[in-house]
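One such shown below:
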Amino acid sequence: MLPSYDLTAITARLAGRDAALDALTQERQAAVAAILRAPARPPGAQRTPAEQVGPGEAELLLIRRAERRGDPWSGHMALPGGRRDPVDEHLLATAIRETREEVGIDLVENGTLLTRLPDVPAVVRGRRVGMIIAPFVFALRSTPELTLSDEVAEALWTPLGPLARGECSSTYRYTHEGDVLDLPCLLVDERIVWGLTYLMLEQLFEVLHA
């Protein structure tokens, strides 16, 4: 039986897990935020019969990175985040700062840290680039209006349940050094979530299904 994906159940499932704030590595570092919220309804909207039973499935924030020359992840679907700055006390601070800068959400004021997922080595065109990425999972207590920076082309909330249950699983045809590879991905409407973001979300789903 698959678990419930409402925000209360997810928060309870992740409670007590390790959420180390920093990394023990000399590699370059980055951090991202997997941000979950309770499903939103338009003002005045009535609950559906399904919603009368429970709070509804949590939603995940995804962004599409702007097209930028020199950015190996230009145009990719992603989680808010970026490289660690010298001013960042730890990697958690990186995730919080980058989220505030990219989408305008203050995770200190509006969010609760649930856990940290295993670090993911950054890979560009099939090769490691000497950087680790730390994914932190947050639950929002309230959802401020999104304010996108010029590094973000769009942002959207999507239900977590269909992603976690495999309902959106597909393959992405990628050409690498003359070889055509069918890589696993998730389809969110017509958007393709693959690569590092796909790996991080798979780690989240593993934890939720444990």
